[in-house]
Amino acid sequence: MSVPIITVENLSKRYILGHRSRGGTYSYAALRDVIAHETSKLAHKTVDFIRGRQPALGDEVEEFWALNDVSFDVKEGEVVGIIGRNGAGKSTLLKILSRITEPTQGRVVLRGRVASLLEVGTGFHPELTGRENIFLNGAIHGMKRSEIRRKFDEIVAFSEVERFLDTPVKRYSSGMYVRLAFAVAAHLEPEILIVDEVLAVGDVDFQRKCLGKMDDVARREGRTVLFVSHNLGTIADLAKRGILMASGSIIQDGSIADAISLYLSRESSSAIYIAPPEKTAVALPHVKRAEVITSELNGIHEFGKSLEVRFWIKHTKPMSKGCFSFFIVNQFQHSVVQAWALYPEYRYGFEPGETLLICKFPSLKLNIGRYHIRAHLSEPPEMEFYELVDGLCPFEVVRTRDTRLWGWDPAAFVYQEECTWTVESLSSEQPDGRALRRQDAARVGQD
Question: Which residues are within 8 A (CB) of 119 and not within 5 positions of it... i.e. 6 or more apart?
């Protein structure tokens, strides 16, 4: 049995949070209470100083466990996608694996050189030029100067920042930062590549380029990749194994399809989406609410029954030629059905207000499995793009009325259309050698 390249055992990370009490520290307090409070604060700060911890600011102290007893192994050459809500502990885990943060408990064993891309500008000095930072970042990753020189031209070509190579990186845009940082991390031949959501900063073409490079690093070069992203389609394309995290613990560790399905089902108990407050506050047109009307309660839909999808589009700013479309996406992140309401066939949003779009499928024959909605709102091509929202309204398709000997498998197919079979028996023959035919017709689909 091969030794895993990454071993994580009982990993925990604790932070000390300080809170200020309401109404002020000394509101209506006696002198003895003030003295006791200040003495206690001084004692806590002294202990923190002795133990090398940053003192917590505030009147009240709280322990927060960002990671709690996390354990897993990663084999050499595996591509692992780590998903979960904001605050689940994903970035803290990657920082510990990258040796940026020390764990409070547990241990990590890394059997190979690690390159990580966690935040824009990590490992870069703002006063140094792009050229100088390539050598600095390579040295941080344990590369020799000769190795960096050998890879230098490839790094520059991939990053597409050759014109600005001798400019201090403090003058780079966030996209240029990411281009150069990823190029360095990916080309310095690490055994383990760790990438956080930072790739979301780059443009679409460069994101595709980065994903292609990570795919090459993993499949062709056999290196190990740990990848965190909220783009479920990207995770599904790149990784075969998925780790779902929540509240600092691992909830699911298995196939990426199972991890994504569980993540979507945990995020919503019903097939309803309501835009967060920060989105509703902006003036740009957006999906204010979405709802999938399933045949059963709690987002359960019976195969072959009518399905209705509703979208409330808020357009405080009028749209000249509104174009809306959505995909039904399965648990493997494949778009299996598309529907659209495009200008000029459908006209809406010319004046400030709200529009309700309703799409109805009379008999939807999706295979069993978990699905969600991915919606796009824009003007026609080459014009303004308003919004792309993914992971909306998760629902599940079931078949309780249909049975077959070998059961139903979500991975076998995505859609079953109604069709008619003709069965002809050719077993009997007439004296002249012609076959006698017995014809049976069978209608299949929803039987």
Answer: 196, 198
